[in-house]
Amino acid sequence: MSTLTIASIQTSLNWIDKEANLAVFDDKMAHIDTAVDLILLPETFATGFAIQLDCAEPENGEVLNWMIAQAKLTSAVIAGSVLVQQGDKKANRFYWVWPNGEVKFYDKRHLFCLGKEGEFVKAGEQREVFTLNGFRILPQVCYDLRFPVFQRSRDDYDVMINVANWPAARRKVWDTLLMARAMENQCYVIGVNRVGDDGNGVAHSGGSAVYDFKGDTLAKAKDNENSVLITTLDKEPLEQFKQSFPAHLDADGFSLDC
């Protein structure tokens, strides 16, 4: 059976300072001393969650080109979200970049109305599933975590990834829903959050973690600390569990309008 080794980078972010942020990630990736298949970065890792400011990338901008170069250098898929210009708005775009330069993406579907994200960001219209080492992977971004219908597995993915700028004030929700999504969808769940205050004074405590299909914690970063979490997932225990407890066979039928 397949395995998948992931490096999840939990770090503070410099407010709208791409050069400084990319330098931080350059350094952290250079010090990963284990062969990994996938490197995960937080939501809006190049700028912070600066949706109201003029800091979006063009379609093939500097940050994407940096991701392409890093994927080639590390021989790993690099993934994380970037603000990308879309007409008079932006997309909160989860890029998935292969070592051979191939690029796929998922645009954040659920926009945070309390933070007026919808005034500045265009909602994604398509649910995506990527494949790596035989694992089917559902990418999600931050606020998406609150919407279980969109994330409901129809036995079409094995791993859910959520990259976030999730505030410390709502940290209990983050921890609880990551575990819940793992249990209800019988999948591995990886959450990658930032730490530190952003440019609006919003505090982030981290909580980057990996949960198995029973909601058990496989790995968890220390709160309020910069760290790189290395985790290896094994597909065989997941398949065995789903065969012994095939709850997905009793799921309600439904369809999505995207």
What class would the helix/strand composition place it in? alpha/beta
* Number of extended strands: 14
- The percentage helix is 10-25%
Task: Report the biggest beta sheet as strand number plus sense, adding barrel if it closes.
Answer: 6 strands, mixed
Which ranges are low-confidence, i.e. pLDDT below 50, for 5 or more consecutive residues?
A: none
CATH class categorisation: Alpha Beta
CATH superfamily: Carbon-nitrogen hydrolase
The radius of gyration is 17 Å
The strand order across the widest sheet is 5-4-3-2-1-14
Mean pLDDT: 96
Helix tally?
Answer: 6
Which tags fit this structure?
six-stranded mixed β-sheet; alpha/beta; Nitrilase/N-carbamoyl-D-aminoacid amidohydrolase; globular; 6 helices; 258 residues; single chain
Describe this structure in words.
This protein has helices at 18-30, 62-74, 117-120, 148-151, 171-185, 235-244, and strands at residues 3-10, 38-40, 77-86, 89-97, 103-107, 130-132, 135-141, 159-164, 188-193, 195-197, 203-205, 209-211, 217-220, 227-234. The protein is 23% helix and 30% strand. It starts with a strand and ends in a 14-residue tail after the last helix. It is built from 6 helices and 14 strands. It has one domain: Carbon-nitrogen hydrolase (Nitrilase/N-carbamoyl-D-aminoacid amidohydrolase), CATH 3.60.110. Helix 1 packs parallel to helix 2. By secondary structure, it is of the alpha/beta class. A 6-stranded mixed β-sheet has the order 5-4-3-2-1-14. Strands 6-7-8-9-12-13 form a 6-stranded mixed β-sheet, covered by helices on one side. A two-stranded antiparallel ribbon has the order 10-11. The model has no long low-confidence stretch (mean pLDDT 96).
